[in-house]
Specification:
By secondary structure, the protein is of the alpha+beta class. It has one domain: Outer membrane efflux proteins (OEP), CATH 1.20.1600. The protein is 63% helix and 14% strand. The protein contains eleven helices and eight strands. The protein has a four-stranded antiparallel sheet with strand order 3-4-6-7, with no helix packed on it.
Length: 472
Amino acid sequence: MKKFFFTFIFLAFIGCSPIPKIKTEKIIKPDSIQTNIPNDRTLIFSCKEWWKIYKDPILDRLVTFALEENEDLKIAKLNISKSDEAIKLADSALGVSIDSSSDLKRERLGKNGMTPPPFGGKIITIGSLGLQGDYNIDIFNKLHSLADEQKYRCEAVKLNSDWIELNITNRVAKLYFYWNYLQQEKKILLSQKDILTEIVSFNKKNVQIGNGINSDIWQSENELRNIDSALKDNSLNLQLTLNNLNILTGNKHNKEIAELLNGKYSMADVVLKERISIPSTISSDIIINRPDIKYYIMLIKGQEKHLEAEKTNFYPQFSLTGQIGFEGITMEKILRRDSLLGFISPSIYLPIFHSGAITSKYKMAGEDLNIFIEEYNNAVITALNNIESELYKTKISCENLKTSDVNLSVQTKILKENRERLTIGSISKLDYLLKELDWNNYKLSNKKELFNFSTQQLTLLNSLGGAYNIEK
């Protein structure tokens, strides 16, 4: 027995192959971002149901449709289900593998048990029924490492699904905001059309009485045609926006979406301006917890486990095989006690005979790990630049909106004064209409700036992977 044991240890020792050294790349750790925005309010960050900060029931409903019916999300959920099954499959390798087998055959025997020529000898029936079990002795945790790898990869699939969900819900919100803007644009354009129609009529009357020139008519008619063209573009954009929302919701709620959107055409401006809060500092934790960043972290952890599993291939592998069953001549004798047979035997696999292939696979696994690390580093750098860029754009957009608000406020005061002057007769109706047309241009410009700001807010939220809100 001792001789067998020492022989076994000797074979295990000489069967090992030299393990090459793998150099892994350094993982970047991002710093926090200073926003230079004074904020003494306590803000909390949330990556779940970020759209609810707007407190708009229509937006909530549209997002719900997308989460339930979007085809990309359905595919993502199927991939999650597939990954869960892959975990079960990997875990099943940790146990004993048992197979059942049965056999029934007929043979013709000659003298001394030899197979005779055709048409001679005795015909016998041989049957067997049994179970065979195999068990891999996971001394170096290869199977456990492969099972852990699959769990990390499953987490990566879930994070990828979260990233897809974030992008889809963000697109739904942008389309909803665009629809609201288009409805406001349509309202202003129709008002401008009414004003220009009246201006054209005044210009024609002035020409008839010799108090105007034809170029005034042509100019106002040209502006009227431009408004008609803008209204056509507006109608087209409304339809395209509706179509895109239907696509994002799997074309399953077309009628409901149309009813929702046509029942309400604008959100209060104050809602868009005040719902988004930006902290004085964006923590590095926010960056590394973005779904796309965490996705690469899971891939790295999974590949580390894969590398551990590949490393075990340099060591001998041990397994046990056992079989028990019945075997006998004729079916009636198979289940007799004296027909019960069985065996159990250990086996050893020595990697020294395949060291070249094992080394190459190990080095390839190490390179894959470094690829994932560099992809993670690249994602972190991209995320940092993306957040800082979108933060800067949001600041500029906010300043532009403030300037536009001031301009509109001033023009509103001017229009009010001109209305008073019209009342007392110090200016003509035509002059007042021109002033009102000019005011509508400022109003439309202000709505565009508000839309740009709200869209930029959403882009910033998408880069953060969630939203900050005031702590309750």
